[in-house]
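Run: sequence + 2-acetamido-2-deoxy-beta-D-glucopyranose -> complex structure.
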Amino acid sequence: MLPSMHRLLGAALSASALLQTATADDRPGLNRRQSGLNAASVSTADFKSRFEESGIVPEVIAALDPAVSFYAAYQSDSGQDALLVPGSSLTVAEANFPFEFSVENLNNATNITSTTRYLIYLLDADAPSRDDPNARNLRHYLAGNYTISSTTSSLLPTAQRLFLPTANANPFTQFQPPAPAPNTGVHRFVYALYTQPPNFNTANFDIVGMSTETSNWSLPDWRMQLGLGPAIGATFFSIDTGANGGQGTSGNVDTQAGGGGGGGATPAGADANVPPYAYALALAGTLLALM
Ligand SMILES: *[C@@H]1O[C@H](CO)[C@@H](O)[C@H](O)[C@H]1NC(C)=O
Ligand SMILES: *[C@@H]1O[C@H](CO)[C@@H](O)[C@H](O)[C@H]1NC(C)=O
Ligand SMILES: *[C@@H]1O[C@H](CO)[C@@H](O)[C@H](O)[C@H]1NC(C)=O
Ligand SMILES: *[C@@H]1O[C@H](CO)[C@@H](O)[C@H](O)[C@H]1NC(C)=O
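>> structure
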């Protein structure tokens, strides 16, 4: 191995050690911020293992062998743009529609051309509750016709944006913001990405008889109905409905009038010890400098 490779590897290892240390920090609210703000790539192998650790594979999706790293980007409660990495814990407000979807490693997916279109869904695997998910899966969003952009992600320069051209925007299921009831456990929400069979370039999923019912959505039946291969990428986040008056794991006290979160249920003093935001930014800067 070249000496410079050693140095790079060393830098990468210390960067990840730093990340580990910081991630293990038990100060409330820190983990989510860092997972969002590092804006560092996650390998497909890590996506795979995080889905397995979360139990989503095999409880919800029988198997996931992602070809691409699939990311969503959201606005954090403190107003920062953040990257959703698999397993991020969000507040209800942060779980609003991502302002950007992006992918890395697209050349590893089979049967992709520049004209390939994609479909994306969001589902709640733990509806209405984690203990009794009798509406699994609850579909919160489904749209086809996503297209690869030549523009890179605003958060991750190695990722290409996916966008939905206005002329082709025809979501089969309009986005319904996650709003799990308080004290119904930790809900896992999954975004997944599939390549779109060409028959849906000119018609929506009703041409194969897909139902608009959003509850009790069976993924295996649906894939067969639409003629889909396995997901080429997927990511997930959770909302802890036991935290923050049911509004999820908030990284900050919401003191701004009109700020997200949907109301004054935030317990007084929650997350009062959250360290300055600058800490996470400094860490992100350190990581960038090491790259
Ligand atoms: C390429 O995709 C396959 C699944 O199609 C996956 O098993 C493999 O890990 C991917 N390789 C990389 C480098 O992501
Ligand atoms: C590749 O794509 C074409 C057209 O989109 C489709 O007919 C074919 O079945 C696909 N092949 C595989 C292996 O997915
Ligand atoms: C989903 O199906 C199960 C079992 O068939 C049923 O008990 C449940 O009420 C259904 N849930 C909804 C929301 O339709
Ligand atoms: C894709 O866009 C076309 C219009 O260009 C539209 O007719 C079709 O329904 C769309 N398909 C999906 C799955 O959204």
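>> summary
The two ends are 18 Å apart (CA to CA). The chain has one domain: 10-252.
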